[in-house]
Amino acid sequence: MNNFRAVNPQTGEEFGPEIANATKGEVSAIIEAAHAPEQTPALRASLLRNIAVALEAARPEIVPIAQQESGLPEARINGELTRTVFQVNLFAAQVATGRHLDPKIDLADANYPMGARPDIRKENQPLGTVAVFAASNFPLAFSTAGGDSISALAAGCAVVLKAHPSHPQTSRLVFAAIQSGIKASGQPKEIFSMVEGNDPQITHWVANHPKITAIGFTGSGGVGKLLMDLAAKREVPIPVFAEMGSINPVFVTSSAISQRNEALVKGAVDSALLGSGQFCTKPGLFVIPKSHADLFLSEMEKYLATISVGPLLNQGIAERYSAAITTLAKLSSVKVISGNTSGTGIVVKPTFFIADWSVISAHPQALEEHFGPTTVIAIAEESQYEVIASSLEGQLTATIHGSDGDPVAPLLAVLAEKAGRVIWNAFPTGVSVTAAMQHGGQWPSSSSHTTSVGTDAIYRFMRPVSYQGMPDELLPDSLKDSNPLGLERLVNGVRTKQ
Amino acid sequence: MNNFRAVNPQTGEEFGPEIANATKGEVSAIIEAAHAPEQTPALRASLLRNIAVALEAARPEIVPIAQQESGLPEARINGELTRTVFQVNLFAAQVATGRHLDPKIDLADANYPMGARPDIRKENQPLGTVAVFAASNFPLAFSTAGGDSISALAAGCAVVLKAHPSHPQTSRLVFAAIQSGIKASGQPKEIFSMVEGNDPQITHWVANHPKITAIGFTGSGGVGKLLMDLAAKREVPIPVFAEMGSINPVFVTSSAISQRNEALVKGAVDSALLGSGQFCTKPGLFVIPKSHADLFLSEMEKYLATISVGPLLNQGIAERYSAAITTLAKLSSVKVISGNTSGTGIVVKPTFFIADWSVISAHPQALEEHFGPTTVIAIAEESQYEVIASSLEGQLTATIHGSDGDPVAPLLAVLAEKAGRVIWNAFPTGVSVTAAMQHGGQWPSSSSHTTSVGTDAIYRFMRPVSYQGMPDELLPDSLKDSNPLGLERLVNGVRTKQ
């Protein structure tokens, strides 16, 4: 493959240094060298904190380059870096507690009812060397130092990061910051390695390497399914944690429109167009009640005329977007409303499609995720909502906009079976990084029931190991009698620090 | 497919009623009808306790039939039923705590450092209808009411059980006991359904049914891989939790032999021949030190002559056993020692193979699991142990027999990467059912990093769901402000019952 350069979506022009595609031999050498030393939670937490400090220190370099490579506004990039640094520190705090080791101790019991029980102790241990494939749409928060990389580091793994070719210089700057954090911690640089390129073969070389023990991925369904297929066909299959996006349906009740139509429409449009509609949690389907459809839609047309949408991240997204809206516009009985663009370069017109649910449901393309400033508005009787929800595929999120007293419990029950996160009177974009966050729903929105955002993401990259009858000096620290790490542990079924 | 009947391994004769193979239509109807009502942890725990009571009450019927169908001694079957009943009650106790719901609450925080945080609450919810494929080798503990079925019930799922054709009447008796427990709880019988047959197509029909959300399996690598393949190719892929067995290597140090050769050999042989060598945790490879090999082997030959081994479970296992030992006996420089048989019917001679590691390692067949009374003893320098351990595939268990002061820490580190459970100075057979148990190792011993034994098995059949900004009355009980279930919850990162 040829070398490549970054493209500025505002101008469509290449800029910055030439980036060479990694060869098969280089990929292999990088993975062979990857290495994470066994270490205490405290040391791993301090590594993460040092990475956070280095990322923050590199803010003045990172922000302008990430802006140029993504076409996203400065405020968004600054906010995303803040989120990224926060996330690293949150994982550091989680690791420092040692809670992720989940130590369990069952002491020997000669009178155990099923037969004498030996001393058994279990803790979570890191999987080894994890491959992470960066996403294009969040050049910081889901990229080089994004949730997948940082949760794998938090788990105690080594990370081999496949940089996204859509923001190669940002990736280098973030990689340098990570390396500086590793160095400040006095740890080996091979804890975190980066593979560069836009050659699709690189994906195969990384996923097929015998030393890789798990894959973290955020991106398209096509690549996610390719990774799952590669992983399943390996001599030693490995887990793939792929977050592949969804249409994030939003169900709107008539009382919600009656009560707050203007705010509702504003929130809906802003969420659908956030980041030029390139969020994996973008609401790609609104279901609105026939009785109040005109109210909602006239307000939407009015609001859409007042705002404008910036450029897309890269030419590939723009091409897929144009193909999708051309197809959708051809559907029978579909009304199209368009908005305005801002800026120059890779810009496309926001385009919303409106039709009865009977039309939408007859066209699978209308129920697929389309990156870019588009969404589908389906008009239906409220009595149909549960049936509509039942017919949908698995989702990252599902939302209800209603008001107190709306009889939505049955609809909510259906949506909780479809989605990883269900939302009331808010919009799905904006995924907070917390312990209770679930970002990962049912197939095809993701490949597993795990979460890729929030502190539970760490468990994807750990495996439990039990020690039976082991002398204290051979046990990991988390399981020693003296509890040298001072952890809360489950001892004979009781949580204790003793 | 034709009907079939149970075979008594002691006589080789068919007995009992004719069992009809389920047709595709019958399998589909059973799965369509499967249904688990949403219910409180207390209700689900009481269902499990009623099943335990019914199983215990059916002991007089179950034990003689299970004996006839398995050829296993009464004491073993009685003990296995005790284990099975204990396991159901242990899961009931776990479910009653509600701990498996793992409720996490992050309250809204306008000043959250990464940006205002909404109220987010997460709990685990059951996957739906789980298919469980029963194992042959434990007609009770890993069969109809075995760990997979009971952990799926504990998770709140409905179970569709594919009965093992090796013990059809035992399966029916256990199924009847489960139904009686369900009835005593006033719950729908469709919580637990059974599919009978020995037609391999049934496996496909069950695994491919769209309503099945996960698969639990204990058995051969061949069938486990088939299930993984079927599950991956579905329109909606589902997780397969397959426990496929391993050779469970045991490394013996010279000091262990010096200190306790007689007890060591007795324990080794007893473990290898337990249940006629048909345990998934059977030690199928002993690695012994060259310096003390003669001592160990002469004791082994002596002890083997004093014991005798009962019949195998079925003709299929006997055929595969005979093929395996014929192949192994042909290897160059391999010494064979044989033991005695007891009983009549499907009996085979215990056959141990002894050779230098260089010979063993050159023959992949010697490092595969072989059901039946056989094991492989490899002679090596102790300095080779780490390299030998590194060369092995993933294992359910790995064991070291040593003495205080043996420098085994590096060997243990390698083994903890290879196996789900590492054992010191004991033998791998006998898997206690506890919170800290890990039964499930690395590929190819199992398809995931989860455990199929112990209370953590429940998490295989649950998925996390987050609720954002949800009014209290729409939240699941575990997440309501008032904590009506009285659970310990993680609230803003702190464990509390408030």
Structure description:
Two copies of one chain form a homodimer. By secondary structure, chain A is α/β, with parallel strands linked by helices. Chain A has 14 helices and 21 strands. In chain A, the strands form five sheets. In chain A, strands 13-15-16-11-10-17-18 form a seven-stranded mixed β-sheet, sandwiched between helices. The first copy, chain A, has a five-stranded mixed β-sheet with strand order 19-4-3-20-21, with no helix packed on it. The first copy, chain A, has a five-stranded parallel β-sheet with strand order 7-6-5-8-9, with helices on both faces. In chain A, helix 2 packs antiparallel against helix 4, helix 3 crosses helix 4 and helix 3 (59-70) packs antiparallel against helix 6 (168-184). The longest helix of chain A has 24 residues, at 74-97. At the A-B interface, helix 4, strand 3, strand 4, helix 8 and helix 14 of A face helix 4, strand 3, strand 4, helix 8 and helix 14 of B.
